[in-house]
Amino acid sequence: xxxxxxxxxxxxxxxxxxxxxxxxxxxxxxxxxxxxxxxxxxxxxxxxxxxxxxxxxxxxxxxxxxxxxxxxxxxxxxxxxxxxxxxxxxxxxxxxxxxxxxxxxxxxxxxxxxxxxxxxxxxxxxxxxxxxxxxxxxxxxxxxxxxxxxxxxxxxxxxxxxxxxxxxxxxxxxxxxxxxxxxxxxxxxxxxxxxxxxxxxxxxxxxxxxxxxxxxxxxxxxxxxxxxxxxxxxxxxxxxxxxxxxxxxxxxxxxxxxxxxxxxxxxxxxxxxxxxxxxxxxxxxxxxxxxxxxxxxxxxxxxxxxxxxxxxxxxxxxxxxxxxxxxxxxxxxxxxxxxxxxxxxxxxxxxxxxxxxxxxxxxxxxxxxxxxxxxxxxxxxxxxxxxxxxxxxxxxxxxxxxxxxxxxxxxxxxxxxxxxxxxxxxxxxx
Length: 430
Description:
Keywords: Cell membrane, Lipoprotein, Membrane, Transmembrane, Transmembrane helix, Transport. This protein has 430 residues and is α+β, with helices and mostly antiparallel strands.
């Protein structure tokens, strides 16, 4: 390794990557009859590296954008952390919520009664997750705020009605003003045991989160009504909190635990959605690996091209050696040729990939209009109306250096063969 570094950086007495080495390296990349055109193999190698780098950048940007959008929507609906009581019911939820909102980094804390239940209309029925929340707090939920499609949340506490998702309303065949029934197995306590409880409620508002799974699951009712219906008078089952920066939950967790002076179970959005985001991470890594194979194939083209180039330039190499060029100078010439191919491919790949990633949704819309297509339909992609992309600078840099590293490694064997060439044997057959 030390000897290789010495030879690459000219410690054999020659100036490393001098003018004549650069001139010969670039000359060997061109076709014989066309001064400014690359040879066929060099052109294929550059094209392969360009396509590989561009594909990596675009796909990673889409994966980053999808993750950011889904995290924003999922934790916007479900909150960032959840405080549940232990041992004793949480009857002091107003005081606990006030303490949470006083913690630096906590934007809001919303007490809720939460319970699974059945919901039915005159024609259909389905399951639901019913959340009892005050009208004031309901308006502060990021998933509800600005997403009411029908009806209103004004006077929600006194209305005795429900707010349901758009997809649930479509499945049940109801609109604002229609009546639905809520059924829970945990009803009144009688001498014969617990009896189910059912009650009819009018639909006061219909919202749309943008995630179909949530639009067909959540039902909101006034907090006091939920406390009575689910036998939780004067208490709540959970306090849902929202953080200023959900990525810094570890630091925030310590502050919350120090501020709350009662036994509790504290969970955050990472724990509740761990399986989902683990799948996204595995998919991202798998796609990166698959597309990296394109770059590896392009690197193999560099190997093939340089081997053919060494065979074609055998006579030239022999003449250079007889004129005084050292083995290491020949080695550096062919390394420089291969790295130049990689550098051109990386430059073109980054130059094309980054703008394409930043304007990918515009390209999608153009293709949809021009060819009457329906690329990336919202109903199949979590209700996302746009193709989200987020270009991370460190990922682009990592892809560029990875590709250059593969290009450098690909040049070593052909360059070593060229350096080992015996000028006497090469000229003997000329």
